């Protein structure tokens, strides 16, 4: 598994969008899940050729629900690695700040009325435009809602920076 993570980073696959693009590329039959053969081919495309038994070990590790396929969520969770406690804590603080109605998901209404995007890097946008862009970035399954897992997956792709740098980055992004 570490070989796969290292190869992804080496190829600049360091965030959720790039991981999604990669998954769609190696998902040969476009069914949003990977078979063992698709994973093997995808790893080969990355320049990471492994013996069949090692590919199977990685596949089994990725297939958390024993479905004999690896879905998008399983893939993201496995390859993103783990965030430190400090990183997880600051992400959860940001998530809670954005989830204005305390529903457990961030939706358009939380963002459009609940968060002031003025002063952010894209301050030329209205709050409504910024909310739509936020949903495009974080909402991996495109259902119009950002779950905690989607939010954490997004930031997990950036968690390789030092704790101090990561915490400052998230604090600055969400005015914490």
Q: What pattern of helices and strands is seen along the backbone?
A: HHEHHEHHEHHEHH
Distance between the termini: 34 Å
Low-confidence stretches: none
* Tally of DSSP β-strands: 4
Instruction: Characterize the overall form.
Output: globular
Helix proportion: 55-70%
- Cα gyration radius (Å): 18 Å
Overall pLDDT score: 80
Number of helices: 10
Kindly report the spatial arrangement of strands forming the biggest sheet. Answer: 1-2
Q: What is the beta-strand fraction?
A: 5-15%
Sketch the major β-sheet.
2 strands, antiparallel
Structural class determined from secondary elements: mainly alpha
InterPro entries: Ca-bind, EF-hand-dom_pair, EF_Hand_1_Ca_BS, EF_hand_dom
Organism: Acanthaster planci (Crown-of-thorns starfish)
Domain EF-hand: 14-49, 50-85, 86-121, 126-161
Pfam families: EF-hand_7 (PF13499)
Would you mind describing this structure in some detail?
- By secondary structure, the protein is mainly α.
- It contains ten helices and four strands; from the N terminus they run H-H-E-H-H-E-H-H-E-H-H-E-H-H.
- Helix 6 (85-98) packs parallel to helix 10 and helix 7 (108-114) packs antiparallel against helix 8 (127-138).
- It is globular, with a radius of gyration of 18 Å.
- 25% of the residues are buried.
- The mean pLDDT is 80.
- GO terms for molecular function: calcium ion binding.
- This is Calcyphosin-like protein.
List the helices and strands and how they pair.
Layout: H1 2-10, H2 16-26, E1 33-34, H3 36-45, H4 52-62, E2 70-71, H5 72-80, H6 85-98, E3 105-107, H7 108-114, H8 127-138, E4 145-147, H9 148-156, H10 163-174
């Amino acid at each position: 598994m570490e070989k796969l993570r290292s190869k992804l980073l080496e190829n600049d696959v360091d965030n959720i969008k790039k991981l999604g693009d990669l998954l769609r590329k190696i998902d040969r039959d476009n069914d949003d899940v990977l078979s063992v053969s698709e994973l093997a081919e995808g790893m080969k495309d990355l320049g990471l050729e492994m013996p069949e038994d090692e590919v199977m070990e990685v596949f089994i590790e990725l297939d958390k629900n024993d479905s004999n396929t690896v879905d998008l969520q399983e893939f993201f969770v496995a390859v993103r690695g783990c965030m430190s406690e400090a990183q997880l804590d600051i992400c959860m603080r940001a998530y809670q700040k954005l989830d204005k109605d305390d529903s457990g998901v961030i939706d358009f209404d939380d963002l459009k009325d609940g968060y002031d995007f003025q002063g952010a890097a894209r301050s030329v946008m209205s709050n409504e435009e910024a909310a739509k862009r936020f949903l495009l970035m974080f909402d991996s399954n495109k259902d119009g809602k950002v779950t905690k897992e989607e939010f954490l997956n997004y930031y997990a792709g950036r968690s390789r920076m030092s704790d101090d740098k990561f915490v400052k980055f998230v604090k600055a992004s969400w005015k914490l």
